[in-house]
Amino acid sequence: MRPRPILAALASATLLSVAGASHAADDVKLIVLKERGVGTSAQAQPFVDKLVEIAKKKLGWASAKGTYFTERKPAEAFIDSDKPHFGILSLASFLAMKEPRKLDTIGQVKVSRAGGQQYFLVSKSAGDQSVCKGEKLATDHAEDTKFIDRVVFNNTMKLADFKLDAMKRPLQGIKAVIKGEAKCALIDDAQLAELANVEGGKDLKTVWKSDTLPPLAVVALPNATDKQKQDFKGSLSSLCDGDGKTVCKEIGIESLKAAGDDAYAQILARYKKDK
Fold first, then answer.
1. Distances (CA, A) of 119 to 102, 151, 185, 207, 222
2. Is the pTM above the cut of 0.70?
3. CA 160, CA 163: separation in Å to the nearest integer?
4. Half-sphere exposure of 181 (CA within 13 A, CB side)
5. Cβ(77)–Cβ(40) under 8 Å?
6. Best CATH choice for the domain 6-113+214-272 from the list 3.40.190.10, 3.30.420.40, 3.30.360.10, 3.30.70.420
7. Does 48 have pLDDT greater than 70?
8. What is the CATH number of domain 119-209?
């Protein structure tokens, strides 16, 4: 896969408005958590640095930092130790952390090829999901069973209906089906887009797809002041203007806007609901 570390850049973009508001001397911290992203933190950091420099030039704030994570456990440890002000979170982590971490939803960001907005069952066999049930299912999305069962599958089926073969890397599930090592694979939209670039990928067919899910959530954590929240939320739609336009285009930001809990209300209800 050709990783595009877009979320790390978003971390810096967030700092553009926050640090330049009424707390220029503060060290404003932001966490970016994109679980199962195709890039690494090391690949993402240069984009963070680039947007931090843009922020400093445009707004003149003194200190701000964005930290990128691909796993929830170290991200939560960072929240406990470093008390960041804001976050950009993939949907599963947002849903899991929303109430325990007292997250205040302040925006949404849609990024091309970020993945996680739709999920698919793919197989060499044509038909529907019935060809997969009871068979080996290869996927790297199985760590959060509650999210998959309630949100992705919308309680129409569950991971326990399959013989689960948990993968570690994004393309492993696809390759397992191509090689005949698994009947089906559960993948997201970013992985689906890569099928044409994987040898044998064109032989796979989509036998089921989920609803389209909301994009990444931009949140304020308890350490953010009301003033910081207001300033940041009010400036989200303009972060990619001016000097930020070229960088946002390079990163693949398709939309960045203010939003509240209502933008995720349906999915939050689905996540909480038992079958």
1. 28, 10, 10, 11, 32
2. yes
3. 7
4. 13
5. no
6. 3.40.190.10
7. no
8. 3.40.190.10
